[in-house]
Amino acid sequence: MNIDFLSNHPDKIKEVSEMVFKEFVMDSASSMKLEEVVKHFSTTKDNAFPITLVALENGECLGTVSIFKNDLKIRDMYKPWLASLYTKPEYRGRGVGQKLVAKTIDVVKELGFKELYLRTEDASDYYRNSGWTYIETVSDDKYERIDVFKVKCI
Questions:
Q1: 64-70: long-range contacts (C-beta < 8 A, 24 or more apart)?
Q2: Is the pTM of this model over 0.90?
């Protein structure tokens, strides 16, 4: 399995866009259309936000993760953020997500940041058990409970 920048694999942009759209956009309050998600992922970079990584094996995309400057408007003092971590169901349990997160931490460290943040509405136990530090629980206009975590990038 290889973790690489989506910007190096433009042939995977539509597939990644569809995964993220189905998992994170469709059931949210967002009015974003699939075409807008494709446009977003078409502009990701390898050295400035937004950054998107993909897990690849034998030409197949197994999962993805992004790094945003901010993923929670009410907490703009925290940056950067791990966002949209997704592994295709048939590849779960193989360490794909862990490898994507590890590479994300490496990229953030290379960019000169000492911490990486994330928000979750339903996976707090996973991140606690993976070594992330709980910071706080907040709410915004869409969610009543958002847990915020951070990890050191040293």
A1: 64/6, 64/16, 64/19, 64/20, 64/100, 65/97, 65/100, 65/101, 65/103, 65/104, 66/20, 67/104, 67/107, 67/108, 67/116
A2: yes
